[in-house]
């Protein structure tokens, strides 16, 4: 079972008509970011693939990519003639500590849940209508959910996503999903906004969300929101169980272990914030 990333390619910026060059400068910055987004989603790509995906002029794309290579934000492989993310980008990313404290505090608790349940535990935050995976502790079993830190999945189709969306008012959920076609990954995926809102109300009432083969056939999960010192949801944690191993007893054990871990994590986050 493999959780795949929901990929999206940013659209190229429009032409600038500014005489002072301000919009042109912004366009150049936007092109840098679209290249980084593309390569992070697709992996190393050829010059022609990058130009085709982003709709960039050849001359502009060549100069842009060469500049990014010189600055080590990209690496060029002369054997495969492909561009990939560079070392400098990794160094810059290490300076971002927004999720680091949360992951540092959460990981030992996630490992405890895996020890109790024998199943994969994941931690994620909401970004728009997607959950972004911050940490994963895998099950020791050969048959398990396989995902990756940094991957993104549509929130409506996962237990983690529904746990995260449940903190939003219905009006905000509708606003975020306005004009969005919710993809169906399995026959069980919820693709109707009204139905999703009913499910989110149930999540709020009982304190946890489930995924009953809604993203991957053969995998179920239970997820719970994690509240920070402000009382707002800052992340969610889940336990994923392959359907062949999913029984009422195992589901109950997973739910209890998850509840204990979330309660402990919320307490530690509150202590850290108040220190």
Describe this structure in words.
The strands form two sheets. Strands 6-5-4-9-8-7 form a six-stranded antiparallel beta sheet, sandwiched between helices. It has a three-stranded antiparallel beta sheet with strand order 1-3-2. Helix content is 45%, strand content 19%. α5 (100-117) packs antiparallel against α9. The chain has 275 residues and is α+β, with helices and mostly antiparallel strands. The protein has nine helices and nine strands. The longest helix is centred in the last third of the chain and has 27 residues, at 248-274. The protein is globular.
Gyration radius over CA: 21 Å
The CATH homologous superfamily name of the largest domain equals GAF domain
Strand content: 15-25%
Distance linking N and C termini: 41 Å
The count of domains is 2
- Describe the sheet with the most strands: 6 strands, antiparallel
Strand order of the largest sheet: 6-5-4-9-8-7
Mean pLDDT: 83
How does CATH name the architecture of the largest domain? 2-Layer Sandwich
* Structural class assignment: alpha+beta
CATH domain class name of the largest domain:
Alpha Beta
Order of helices and strands: HEHHEEHHEEEHHHEEEH
Query: Helix count, per DSSP?
Result: 9
Low-confidence runs (pLDDT<50, min 5 residues)? 1-22, 271-275
Helix content bin: 40-55%
Question: At the third CATH level, what is the topology name of the largest domain?
Answer: Beta-Lactamase
Tell how many strands the DSSP assignment holds.
Answer: 9
Shape: globular
């Amino acid at each position: 079972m493999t959780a795949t990333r929901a990929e999206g390619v940013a659209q190229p910026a429009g032409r600038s008509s500014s005489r002072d060059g301000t919009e042109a400068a912004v366009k150049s910055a936007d092109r840098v970011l679209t290249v980084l987004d593309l390569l992070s989603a697709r992996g190393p790509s050829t010059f022609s693939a990058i130009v085709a995906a982003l709709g960039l002029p050849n001359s502009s794309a060549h100069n842009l990519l060469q500049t990014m290579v010189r600055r080590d934000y990209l690496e060029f492989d002369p054997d495969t003639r492909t561009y990939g993310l560079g070392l400098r980008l990794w160094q810059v990313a290490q300076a971002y500590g927004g999720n680091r404290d949360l992951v540092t505090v959460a990981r030992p608790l996630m490992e405890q849940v895996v020890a109790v349940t024998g199943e994969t535990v994941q931690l994620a935050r909401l970004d728009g209508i997607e959950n972004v995976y911050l940490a994963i502790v895998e099950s020791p079993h050969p048959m398990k959910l396989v995902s990756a830190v940094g991957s993104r999945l549509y929130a409506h189709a996962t237990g983690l996503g529904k746990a995260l969306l449940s903190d939003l008012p219905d009006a905000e959920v509708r606003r975020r999903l306005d004009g969005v076609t919710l993809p169906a990954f399995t026959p069980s995926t919820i693709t109707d906004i009204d139905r999703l809102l009913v499910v989110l109300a149930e999540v709020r009432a009982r304190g946890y969300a489930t995924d009953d083969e809604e993203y991957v056939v053969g995998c179920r999960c239970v997820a719970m929101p994690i509240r920070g010192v402000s009382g707002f949801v800052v992340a969610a944690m889940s336990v994923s169980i392959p359907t062949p191993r999913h029984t009422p007893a195992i589901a109950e054990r997973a739910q209890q272990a998850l509840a204990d871990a979330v309660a402990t994590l919320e307490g530690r986050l509150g202590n850290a914030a108040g220190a």
